[in-house]
Specification:
By secondary structure, the protein is of the alpha+beta class. It folds into two domains: 203 residues, no CATH class; 126 residues, no CATH class. Helices cover 28% and strands 23% of the residues. The protein is built from eight helices and 15 strands. Strand 14 and strand 15 form a beta hairpin. Helix 1 crosses helix 4. It is globular.
């Protein structure tokens, strides 16, 4: 298919206008969003989600003072980690930019509520928001405890899976902040035992494992330990963290071996290594993880992105282990040239601005290839 120079110019102009419009809408909506009064440090990734017994007595959260973000504040940005979900129910953390202001925790949660602006931003990442439309959020943070009061809209979730995803996403999001290590829920100002479809919200939650796979029936619970794996989503845009239960020690050797096996069951995730590729060995020397694969690994470049996300998933899986600072890949004992791949250690698994930019680059490359 041949495309004239004028047609190409019109395409780029239209694309630029769309991006500018989205940016203006997003910025204006952020100016108008209220934020909670708790001033929080920038979020840092930590570990995962488990329930602990709630205190014997609970009290209603203090009424928080809301603040409107001014245009001057909106000009200054900070990073925050938002938890979305993909079309198959996997929770996906994404680092996003928001105006620098007090109440960053509430502002972050507000980005997870269904609305035209929020849904558009999530869709650009190939993801979806997790809280129902018009859900109100009151938040009080004190002594490491975040007490969140959600509107009664959360009682109308579609099913138990949607309820559980919402609760997990909120806990994961809040515990990204250094000032939060526990989360307590109220619904419509009242303490509840369960949500409509049976999800337990009576306890105080701490951070726990994310996207936990089902254990194999033959695996002993007492011998099982969790290992975090990273897989590209089938959308080709983001990395999804998955917790797999394994027998024995969950070290880097086990993690890379499990990663090479690929997603289990009917998971809608992409394999990291090409079909037929085997793992020869894993060595860690002077902080460098050296992964040696069979010859089929070179077929990675046939991926639609040239293997960029697969290499990134490998690096993330390896560098989660203490003492591992970088990754080198070998194919049948020969060092692999990653070319344009991602063998550097990323600052975070998913960064919204980078994903948007790469989407534009992909569209532009596709246009030139059509010429």
């Amino acid at each position: 298919m041949n495309i004239s120079q004028n047609q190409r110019k019109v395409y780029y102009l239209a694309l630029a206008l769309i991006l500018v419009a989205i940016a203006l809408i997003s910025t204006w909506s952020l100016w108008l969003k209220p934020a909670d009064s708790a001033s929080l440090a920038a979020p840092t990734p930590t570990a995962a989600l488990q329930a602990t017994p709630a205190p014997a007595a609970t009290t209603a959260p203090e009424t928080t003072t809301t603040h409107t973000v001014t245009p001057a504040q909106a000009a200054k940005k900070t990073s925050t980690i938002v938890y979305y979900q993909d079309n198959y129910g996997y929770l996906v953390p994404v680092m996003c930019s928001v105006p620098l202001a007090d109440g960053i925790a509430k502002a972050t949660l507000s980005m997870m509520v269904q609305s035209p602006d929020n849904d558009m931003q999530a869709a650009r990442l190939g993801l979806r928001t997790v809280l129902p439309e018009n859900t109100s959020i009151d938040l009080d943070i004190s002594g490491g405890l975040a007490r969140i009061d959600l509107g009664r809209e959360v009682l109308d979730m579609a099913d138990a899976a949607a309820e559980s995803n919402m609760i997990d996403a909120i806990v994961q999001t809040l515990t990204e902040f250094d000032t939060v290590d526990r989360v307590e829920f109220l619904i419509g100002g009242q303490k509840r035992e369960k949500l409509t479809h049976g999800t337990d919200v009576s306890k105080t939650f701490t951070r726990g494992d994310i996207n936990v796979e089902s254990m194999e029936p033959t695996m002993s619970v007492t011998d099982a330990s969790p290992v975090m794996l990273y897989f590209p989503a089938d959308s080709g845009a983001v990395i999804v963290p998955v917790t797999r239960m394994v027998e024995g020690q969950s070290d880097i050797n086990t993690a890379v071996l499990e990663l090479a096996k690929g997603p289990t069951g009917d998971e809608m995730l992409e394999s990291v290594v090409p079909a037929g590729c085997g793992l020869i060995d894993v060595k860690v020397e002077d902080g460098v993880a050296k992964l040696n694969f069979t010859g089929e690994f070179v077929n990675l470049v046939q991926n639609s992105d040239g293997g960029r996300l697969a290499l990134k998933a490998l690096v993330l899986t390896c560098t989660q282990f203490e003492g591992v600072k970088s990754v080198e890949i070998y194919v049948d004992g020969q060092k692999y040239d990653a070319a344009q791949g991602e063998l550097g250690v990323p600052s975070f698994m998913n960064i919204a601005d980078s994903i948007y930019y790469e989407a534009i680059q992909t569209q532009s490359n596709a246009l030139f290839e059509m010429d």
